[in-house]
Write a structure and sequence with these properties.
The complex is a heterodimer of chains A (about 280) and B (about 325). With about 280 residues, chain A is α/β, with parallel strands linked by helices. Chain A has helices at about 20-30, 55-70, 80-95, 95-105, 120-140, 170-175, 205-220, 230-235, 245-255, and strands at about 1-5, 30-35, 75, 120, 145-150, 185, 225-230, 245. In chain A, the strands form two sheets. In chain A, strands 2-1-3-4 form a four-stranded parallel sheet. In chain A, strands 6-5-7-8 form a four-stranded parallel sheet. In chain A, strand 7 (about 225-230), helix 8 (about 230-235) and strand 8 form a beta-alpha-beta unit. Chain A starts with a strand and ends in a 21-residue tail after the last helix. In chain B, helix 6 crosses helix 8 (about 225-240). The chains are: A alpha/beta (about 280), B alpha+beta (about 325). At the A-B interface, helix 2, helix 4 and helix 7 of A face helix 4, helix 7, helix 8, helix 9 and helix 10 of B. The structure holds iron/sulfur cluster (2 copies) and FE2/S2 (inorganic) cluster.
Chain lengths: ~280, ~325
């Protein structure tokens, strides 16, 4: 069985603990063995930069090194963790001096950043690690009669250097959702507007103003639910009129899980799936 | 030279009727055109009323920013053929500024915001000599701290699809905040850092959602989102405490302690009011309802946490 390192970010912590079950179940459904990188630490979340940007390099060089030590690539379902870790990888791979200095300090923990591990997010994991054909084979049943609005979130499409698909005309999310049997609603208003998650504790009202926009756009366009790959977008946008789910939750259901097993009952805004 | 056929789908705006609409232009042109040259071709050969702004044609003057295939950039810097998707290239005005006509937007509100942050040097008499004969000394490593940021050509590509502006049209904007950073870093500047930070805080740094779109748009590779993080760091270290600075301090402290953030207590610490306490109580209630064991409410340090803490300390000091 193919193996991959599961990076535990804050989306597996506290009230979001079920995201870990969703993730491991998803990997199981994909026929991939997930190895939890137990000593991995927070990616910085775009917040530790406010203390010291260098720590963010250190944290993520170390996170990647932990995967490399296990001989696996690194997988995170979170858009933001993905972007920050991938950005750090780019920085380390293009700056030998930085890499060397980080490695000197990492050596004390018996770790080394080599640059061999790839960084995966759910979307490129399905396309490049599992393969779309294999993915389709693993879908057991169709979730029909539901209109789904794909919502990428920002950090899988920007910055361009780490985007998991063509950032101008991405299609990967459609390609992942279509095999589930759902009807896709694209081109809705504010589909590329940010969910506002990262303003939650800097300017809470800003988050409120933004989170509702893509939801309203999707609703207006006739979507029953919004589907995002990102657990943070999910968290930011759950609790309004229009329901939102994570793509992996839908995949798990299509692979045989009950809605409850897929954590769908934990949604603040209720979702009804017909199977 | 090879000729190619495609459709230029341009979003036009007619101020007389206050109407926006898409118009398709079928073209057969050399494959070497920039988007700006494509627009000039259309204006010259098909529709002389097509209106856009441009001047230098070489990514210097900053006039020709627009949205090309859903992403902001300079029309004179981008090759048209790279942007043709399914035979179509989509061109529209910057999104967060009002169109004046077709692809020309009213830049005035963004310039007004730039003025608000005092985008000029207030010479520090200790560094800048009071006569014109001597120069002020800036060391290369001092200049390196804001070298990149001085490349800004005020094209507004970053501003044109900034997400914070979609939530608050009074948001200062990415290039304006980069300017604040640039002057704070300038050793010749005499304005108090606190004053510059105050200017950056008003509909500013705390409203940014870190979406990275400004960086993705900038033709000069300036990362306003990173500059904003630096400004937040400076605000945290020099300015007044607020929800965001409390969150940043607590975030780092708990990561240092356990490797992870303490999401149970973060809202209470950041909000620092009754609402925050309520959030904590509600979380605990939710945990219990869901049968989550108490020792899983918050993060626990992993094995070898001491080594991790040493690692962080060393990174802070030595990297
Ligand atoms: S990162 Fe901040 S400043 Fe940059 S585009 Fe996004 S919201 Fe605007
Ligand atoms: S920061 Fe970049 S995109 Fe923004 S105005 Fe300056 S040059 Fe243009
Ligand atoms: S025309 Fe001057 S920057 Fe494009």
């Amino acid at each position: 069985m193919k193996k991959i390192g599961i990076y535990p970010g804050c989306c597996f912590q506290g009230a979001d603990i079920h995201n870990y079950d969703i993730t491991t179940k998803f990997l199981e459904n994909m026929g991939v063995e997930g190895i939890l990188l137990e000593r991995a630490a927070c990616c910085g979340g775009g917040v530790i930069d406010e203390t010291n940007k260098k720590i963010v390099y250190g944290l993520n060089a170390r996170n990647i090194a932990l995967a490399e030590k296990e001989g696996v690539d690194l997988y995170t379902p979170c858009n933001t963790c993905y972007m920050i870790i991938a950005k750090t990888k780019l920085a380390l791979d293009s700056d030998p001096e930085l890499k060397e200095k980080v490695n000197e300090i990492l050596a004390e923990e018996g770790l080394e950043y080599k640059g061999t591990a790839k960084i995966y997010h759910t979307l490129n994991l399905i396309r490049d690690f599992v393969g779309l054909d294999e993915y389709k084979k693993r879908i057991k049943r169709q979730i029909s009669g539901i209109k789904v609005a794909p919502y990428y979130g920002c950090h899988v499409l920007a910055p361009n250097e780490v985007a998991v698909d063509d950032p101008e005309n991405p299609t990967i999310l459609r390609e992942v959702l279509e095999p589930l049997g759902v009807e896709i609603i694209e081109g809705y208003k504010d589909e590329d507007t940010c969910c506002g998650y990262h303003a939650r504790f800097t300017e809470p009202e800003q988050k409120e103003r933004l989170a509702i926009k893509p939801l309203d756009g999707a609703k207006e366009a006739g979507a029953d639910i919004v589907a995002t790959p990102c657990p943070l977008c999910h968290k930011a946008m759950d609790g309004y009129d229009e329901p939102i789910l994570q793509v992996t939750q839908l995949i798990n259901v299509a692979c045989g899980a009950t809605p409850e097993e897929a954590g769908i009952n934990l949604n603040k805004t209720e979702v009804k799936l017909s199977l | 030279m090879k000729k190619i056929k495609y459709t230029a789908r341009i979003k036009r705006y007619n101020p007389e009727e206050d109407k926006s609409y898409w118009q398709d232009f079928e073209v057969e042109v050399e494959d070497s055109l920039t988007v700006l040259e494509l627009l000039m071709y259309i204006k010259d050969k098909i529709d002389p009323t097509l209106t856009f702004r441009a001047f230098c044609r070489s990514a210097i003057c900053g006039s020709c920013a627009m949205i090309i295939n859903n992403r902001a950039g300079l029309a004179c810097k981008i090759q048209a053929k790279d942007k043709i998707k399914n035979g179509v290239i989509k061109i529209e005005p910057l999104k967060t500024l009002k169109p004046v006509r077709d692809l020309v937007v009213d830049q005035e509100p963004a310039f007004d915001k730039l003025k608000k942050i005092k985008p000029y040097l207030e010479p520090d008499p200790k560094v800048v000599p009071d006569n014109l004969k001597s120069e002020s000394l800036v060391l290369p490593e001092e200049f390196a701290r804001y070298d990149k940021q001085t490349d800004c050509i005020l094209c507004m590509a970053c501003y044109g699809q900034c997400n914070a502006l979609k939530g608050d049209d009074q948001y200062l904007g990415p290039f304006q905040l980069t300017k604040v950073f640039r002057f704070i870093m300038d050793t010749r500047d005499g304005m108090d850092v606190e004053e510059r930070i105050k200017l950056a805080e008003d509909h500013g740094i705390w409203e940014c959602v870190q979406c990275q779109m400004c960086f993705a748009a900038c033709p000069k590779g300036i990362s306003s989102c990173d500059d904003i993080l630096e400004l937040r760091r400076i605000a945290k270290d020099t300015g007044e405490e607020n929800i965001a600075t409390r969150r940043a301090k607590f975030w780092f402290a708990t990561v240092f302690e356990t490797g992870q953030i303490d999401k149970l207590n973060l809202p209470a610490v950041a909000l620092n009011n009754e609402k925050g306490e309520k959030a904590r109580e509600n979380l605990i209630k939710e945990f219990k309802q869901r049968g989550i064991p108490e020792d899983e409410f918050g993060p626990k340090p992993f094995d070898g946490i001491d080594k991790f803490r040493n690692f962080i300390k060393k990174i802070e000091k030595e990297l």
